[in-house]
Specification:
66 residues; mainly beta; 33% strand; globular; 11% helix; 5 strands
Length: 66
């Protein structure tokens, strides 16, 4: 299936979850927020939230500083 991640088309296995997507992209889930089709996904749902063909995903990284 094809999904859009931060504006870039990517081919992924059917039924991949948000957590599996983050693992595939080597992004630690603790320091990001994930939005799927304009809906913010709670971290507690990453492992259950399956993605579908043509979903639009935005992954926002938290950056600390001072």
């Amino acid at each position: 299936m094809t999904i859009i991640v931060n504006g870039e088309a990517r081919q992924m296995a059917d039924g991949i979850t948000v957590r599996q997507l983050l693992d595939e992209l080597q992004i630690p889930p603790t320091r990001v927020a994930v939005e799927v089709n304009l809906e913010i996904i709670p971290k507690s749902a990453y492992a259950e939230r399956a993605l579908q063909d043509a979903d639009k995903i935005e992954i926002v990284h938290f950056v600390g500083g001072g």
